Amino acid sequence: MKQETIKIEGMMCGHCQMTVEKAIRNVKGVQDVSVNLGSKQAEVSYDPAITDSAAIQSAVTKAGYKVVD
Question: Residue ranges of the HMA domain (predicted)?
């Protein structure tokens, strides 16, 4: 299992937080996700044999938010 913190721009409310969490959770291979609205970050645990950081970041972008490096 791999753990990663992703910084996200554009989340303004609880609905945004839930949208991002759902988008990440729907990526095959993601085991756990916790999105913090205050810090604008997502803590993600995933199986690197199934998915990778790029796929998770793509899901965030497709949900309408920006991943910050």
Answer: 2-68
